[in-house]
């Protein structure tokens, strides 16, 4: 069996989570890590058993035998770091939000296609077993035609102007960090919205602290979505169908199961026991794609990520949020 050598570019908190879950993926090995600090890279490599540690992102291209690179830097850096790897011939799994705007995302896709290299957005939610089951249930008409979807994601964080959540230069704000999850789940089940409306409350740095979105679709369905870094929300998602409701159990972006609610009937619960943190699902899928010689994922195609970025851009236009250089 082939072993896939993974590299991680950017060694923040989510990189540690991904590295821990990579140990759960058959035929996966953490091969190399890259940071702007050699000491940080060496410490990370020692903690997770990586053979190679480099002190610049450019140096990663000189490490031999890399099969895939997981990019875990701030949103504002995804574009540059993905282009670096793609132009160097390295397949890329790039954290969400895919880029800062759709123009950057289109350049990333173009680079992948021109170089014949695999590229996928690291939207781990897509690969949870409960999500696969939910899509099958909706497509089978279990709750009838979906009329409305409601989803929220919020947590409290201290205001630090220089942090990635609040700094405009790092494409901060609730929208690109966590608002992207409600938008993702709405697009997965309802498609691309025909109408996008949004309002937001700005943080002192100008990025969005709260963002409320209302979407309408050609099918007649609607969605109400919310993100905040100023309060703790339930992180719920409910699909309201003509004949019932489908609830994603637990935190909807990492669901632990499903509940089916039908009028006059007992609630049907479909649990999915948790293994690891959940990042191993997307890593295993990337390996399947690479083993088949695919240039993109059939479950999360590049066109989907581009559509999602267009909606994110539309929401930012509604709330008047522009990042430096745009």
TrEMBL record:
The keyword Nucleotidyltransferase does not apply. Residues 4-122 form the Gfo/Idh/MocA-like oxidoreductase N-terminal domain. The keyword Phosphoprotein does not apply. Keywords: Oxidoreductase. Gene3D superfamilies: Dihydrodipicolinate Reductase, domain 2, NAD(P)-binding Rossmann-like Domain. It holds the Pfam family GFO_IDH_MocA_C3. Residues 132-246 form the GFO/IDH/MocA-like oxidoreductase domain. Belongs to the Gfo/Idh/MocA family. This is Gfo/Idh/MocA family oxidoreductase. It comes from Hymenobacter ginsengisoli.
């Amino acid at each position: 069996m082939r072993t896939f050598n993974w590299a991680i570019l950017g060694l923040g908190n989510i990189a540690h989570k991904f590295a821990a879950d990579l140990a759960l993926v058959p035929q996966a090995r953490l091969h190399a890590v890259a940071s702007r600090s050699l000491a940080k890279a060496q410490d990370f490599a020692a903690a997770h058993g990586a053979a190679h540690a480099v002190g610049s992102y450019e140096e990663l291209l000189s490490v031999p035998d890399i099969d895939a690179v997981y990019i875990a830097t701030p949103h504002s850096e995804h574009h540059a770091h993905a282009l670096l790897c793609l132009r160097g011939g390295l397949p890329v799994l790039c954290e969400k939000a895919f880029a800062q705007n759709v123009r950057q995302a289109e350049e990333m896709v173009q680079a992948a296609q021109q170089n014949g290299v695999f590229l996928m957005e690291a939207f781990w939610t897509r690969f949870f077993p409960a999500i696969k089951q939910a899509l099958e249930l909706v497509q089978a008409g279990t709750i009838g035609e979906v009329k409305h979807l409601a989803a929220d994601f919020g947590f409290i964080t201290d205001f630090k102007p220089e942090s990635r959540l609040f700094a405009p230069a790092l494409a901060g704000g609730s929208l690109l960090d966590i608002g992207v999850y409600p938008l993702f789940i709405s697009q997965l089940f309802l498609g691309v919205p025909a109408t996008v409306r949004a309002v937001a409350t700005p943080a002192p740095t100008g990025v969005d602290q709260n963002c409320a979105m209302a979407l309408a679709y050609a099918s007649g369905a609607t969605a109400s979505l919310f993100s905040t870094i100023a309060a703790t929300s339930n992180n719920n998602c409910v699909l309201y169908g003509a004949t019932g409701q489908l609830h994603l159990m637990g935190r909807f972006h990492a669901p632990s199961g499903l509940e089916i609610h039908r009028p006059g009937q007992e609630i049907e619960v479909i649990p999915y026991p948790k293994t690891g943190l959940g990042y191993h699902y997307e890593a295993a899928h990337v390996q399947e794609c690479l083993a088949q010689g695919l240039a993109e994922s059939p479950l999360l195609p590049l066109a989907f990520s581009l559509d999602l970025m267009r909606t994110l851009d539309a929401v930012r236009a509604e709330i008047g949020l522009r990042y430096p250089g745009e």
